[in-house]
Structure formats: C-alpha cells, structure tokens
Amino acid sequence: MGTTLAPLLAVKESFEEWEGERRELLERRISEMGLSITGSLVERLVQQLYAEMGSRGMIFQPPVYLSDQWGCPDNTPLIGVPFYLADPKLARIEEEMAVEVEGEGDVMRYLRHEAGHAVNYAYRLYDRADWAATFGSYALPYRERFHADPFSRNFVRHILGWYAQKHPDEDFAETFAVWLTPDLDWRAEYAGWPALRKLEYMDRLMHEIAGQPTEVTTVSPDDLPVEAMHYTIADHYREASEALPIEDRRHFDGDLRNIFAFVKEAPEGESAARFLARHRREVIARIAYWTAESTTVVGSFIDFLTERCEELALRVRGLEASTIIELTAFGTAVMMRYRYARTKRVTRRQTETA
C-alpha cells in the first residue's frame, strides 16, 4: 500500500510547491526579476537567426531584447521577444495561462518574421517605388482585424492565419521569412503562384543590400524592455485578457443542446462540463489555430461554455472524437464571426471619423 501512495503524495507535494511558487512569481514586478537573454534559449535561437542571415551575405544583425510581446516597436529595427521565453518557470506560467507556449520551431518562425520588419525599417525599403509596386502602399491603414482570402495565392504562408494579407508591411515580413528559411526550396514551393514574384523580388533586393551597413538602433524605455515593465506578471495577464460581449448567459444554449444532451436523453453520458474541462487545452488550441484568434479570447469562450454546460446539466451523447470535432467547428464559427463583427465596427468608426 505504501508504494502505491508514495508517488501520489510526491505529485501532490510537487503540485502544491509549484502553486506556491507560481503565486509568488505572479506578484513579482517584471522589471525586478533580472531577466536576460544571456544564457537562455532565446540567445541560442537569436544566434541561429544571425547565422541564417549571415549565410545569405547579410551583415545587418537586428538587436533583440525582452519585452511584453513579439514585435518591432514603432517602425524601429529592433526585435522584441516575449519575456517569458527567457525563463522556464515563466514559460510554464504562460503555457498555463494561454494554453500554449512557443516551441523552438515557433520561435524561429517569429524571429524570421520580425527580422523581415527590422530589415525593412533599417534600410527604409518601404520608401522604394519597386517595394510599393510589389507589396502595396506602406501608408495603408494598419488594422488588427482584417479580412483574409484563404484561396489567394498572391501571398506566402509562414505564420498561421494568412498573416501576409494583413498589410503590405506584414506581406514583406512574411515573404522575407520564407526567403530566409533554411532548406526551403521556395521556388518549388510557390511554383505557379503569383506570390513567387514577390519572393524573386526579395531575392534580388536582399542581394542588393546584403553588404550595406546601416545604423544600429539601441533599445530605449519607450520600446518597453523588461527593465521598463514596472508591473507584475499577474498584471501582464490581466491586461491581455478580453471580456466577451455575452449579455445573456442563455445566448448559446440552443447550440450547446445540439452538441450535447440532457440527462434523460443520455443518462450514462459523461458530464459535458467535465468533458470540456478534460479537453480544454486541445479545443482551445485547435480553435485558435484555425481562427488566428488569441488563446486567451478562445479560452474565455470555452470557459463560459463549460460553466453553462454545468448549469444546464448537459451530458455527452455521441462519440468523443465526433463531439470534439463538432465543438471545434462551433467554436471556430463563433470566433470567426466575432472577429468579422469587430472588424466591421472598427472599419465603420474609421470611416465615420475620416
């Protein structure tokens, strides 16, 4: 009996230890944690990025620093990397909060993409007439919510969610990332696609500027490095959360009744709330993947559905796999319509104020 209980007790103690450490970390100010790229996974992957750029003859190495999210601040040739990637315990918190955390492959995809932005800004390529003729006007409005044509072959696919269609700046960054990716035969990959013309232009342009020096930009407090993030980790996640506009908790009851069943219809079925809790990570990840919506927003929706299933005492009536598929399809449809509605509202406001 003792040998059976020992592993369970160890797991419980380990869980309790982590929960205590987690609570302590959440209340710490990010600026006071001494986070650094040096010695971290990020350092090794940044060196890989520089090696990839160097193998193409490029002498420019965009400075990389820890910040609150991925990005190049205000058209500045710097690459901001999420702070949690520099510490395994913070990465674990990110995974718990946002369902997933970037693996090495994801980090390299983002680094190549952001390097494209940095190259564009460092050499002011967007001012060139041939750049505008290839990618479009850099002066076009930049919208977080955008319409994408999933059938278009005018754009490369690098980051998920048809991101190149968001803006000419993103189109350039995505095209650069594909061009830079090692062991990718982009000529064969995009043969017959209009996007190939952009990749061929990128190849010519990068060969033209590869050996040209450019001014190196230093990180300032305005770029929000970790040293300037004078708020707690809990504050960071609180700020990232987004409340869904559900004014009546009964709003999706009809949909839930189509997916699940009442007790009298499936008396032996598993509790729908328990089913959702068991598959929470998988369902959120799938919906976020197909909609390009943040896992925090999708998570809020799935958590609401879980609570509502508990209130309605719904049960699983079909096979587990088919229920997951139906639930994922339903969640994807809701998130896409939510995204479309927000895009229309933003566009209408911009039109009215123009």
What can you see in these coordinates?
- The protein is mainly α.
- It is 55% helix and 2% strand.
- It has 2 domains: 7-233, no CATH class; 241-353, no CATH class.
- The protein has a two-stranded parallel sheet.
Order of helical and strand elements:
HHEEHHHHHHHHHHHH
Shape: globular
Average pLDDT:
89
Integer count of domains = 2
% residues in beta strands = under 5%
Tell how many strands the DSSP assignment holds: 2
Roughly how many Å apart are the termini? 74 Å
Describe the main β-sheet briefly: 2 strands, parallel
Report Rg: 23 Å
Name the poorly predicted regions: 8-12, 344-354
Helix content: 55-70%
Strand order of the largest sheet: 1-2
Structural class: mainly alpha
- Summed up, the helix count is 14
Outline:
The protein has 354 residues and is mainly alpha-helical. Helix content is 55%, strand content 2%.
